[in-house]
Amino acid sequence: MSEENSIVSFDKVMLHYGEGAPVLKNVSISLYKKSFYFLTGASGAGKTTLLRLLYMGIKPSSGQLKIFGKDVAEISRQELFEIRQKIGVVFQDFNILNHLTVMENVALPLKVAGELKKQRENQAKEILDWVGLGGCFNAYPDVLSGGQKQRVAIARAVIIRPEILLADEPTGNVDEQIANKLMNLFYGMHKMGTCVIVATHYRQFVDTFRYNELKIENGRIIADRSILDPKGEF
User: Fold this and answer.
1) 1, 32 Cβ separation under 8 angstroms
2) What is the pLDDT of residue 231?
3) Comparing C-alpha atoms, which of 142, 136, 143, 114 is closest to residue 155?
4) What is the arithmetic mean of pLDDT over 71-99?
5) pTM (2 decimals)?
6) For an engineered disulfide with 219, which of 9, 25, 180, 182 has Cβ 3.0 to 4.6 Å away?
C-alpha cells in the first residue's frame, strides 16, 4: 500500500525528553485503515510513548508525523480537537471521571458529539452489556475494581466507532474470558474499518491472533510483519 493511502505516517520520527537518550529513534512506518497492529516490546521500550504521539499528547522532537494527512507539528487547536474526535484511546491510567456514573462516562464522547440523551444512553448500555458491565450502569467509578475501570475505558473508547483505536495493555487487568471478548470486540472494529493498535506484553494474544506486529527495541521498530489469520481473511 502506498503512503497516500495511509491513515498515519511516521517519517524519521525521534522523541526524547530533555537531555536524555532518545525514547524513539528514526521511526518510519505507515499505518492503514482496516488494519490491526500489535505493538510489542519490553517494559519501557517506548510503546506508551508511541501511542501518546499518535494521540498527539506529545509531539516528535524531530521528523514528521502525519495523522489523517495532517502534519501534527502544524495543526491548529481546532484541528487537534477535530482529529481527536476520530481517535479512541485506552491508556493504563483509565482517565475515568469519578463524578460521573459508569453510563455517563461511557456516553460522554457521544454527548460531546451532540447525540441526544436517549440515543447515547442506549448505545452506552449496549456496549456495557458487551463488556460484561450490564449491572453497573449507575455505579460510580470509586466502587469499581481495576479490571472494571479498564472495561469502562474501553467501552468509552469504542462507542464513537473511531477511525483509529489506541489501546495500551487493554487486557492487563481482566481474566482470560473477558480478555478474549475484548479482543473479539477490537477485531470487529478492525473489520468495520478502524485502524486498531494494541500495545501488549501478552505474547499469547500476539501468537494466537497473528495480526501485524510492530516491535520496539532500543527505540526502533525492529519487526513489522503481515500474516494472514487462520481463515485467510486479513
Assistant:
1) yes
2) 36
3) 136
4) 90
5) 0.87
6) 25
Which overall architecture, per CATH, does domain 33-62+76-225 show?
A: 3-Layer(aba) Sandwich (3.40)
Give yes or no for a contact between 110 and 123, defined as CB atoms under 8 angstroms apart.
yes
Q: What 3 state SS string does the chain have?
A: CCHHHEEEEEEEEEECCCCCCCCEEEECCEEECCCEEEEECCCCCCHHHHHHHHCCCCCCCEEEEEECCEECCCCCHHHHHHHHCCEEEECCCCCCCCCCCHHHHHHHHHHHCCCCHHHHHHHHHHHHHHCCCCCCCCCCHHHCCHHHHHHHHHHHHHCCCCCEEEEECCCCCCCHHHHHHHHHHHHHHHHCCCEEEEECCCHHHHHHHCCEEEEEECCEEEEEECCCCCCCCC
Evaluate if residue 179 carries a pLDDT over 90.
no
Q: How far apart are CA 224 and CA 156, in angstroms?
A: 29
Is the separation of the CB atoms in 29 and 66 below 8 Å? Answer: no
Task: Give the mean pLDDT of 5-14.
Answer: 90
Domain ranges, ordered by start, for the chain? 33-62+76-225
How far is it, in rounded angstroms, from Cα 221 to Cα 63?
Answer: 15
> Does residue 220 contact residue 27 with C-beta atoms inside 8 Å?
yes
Enumerate residues 6+ apart whose C-beta is below 8 A from 178: 131, 132, 147, 151, 171
164 within 8 A of 7, measured Cβ to Cβ: yes
Mean pLDDT in residue range 13-18: 88
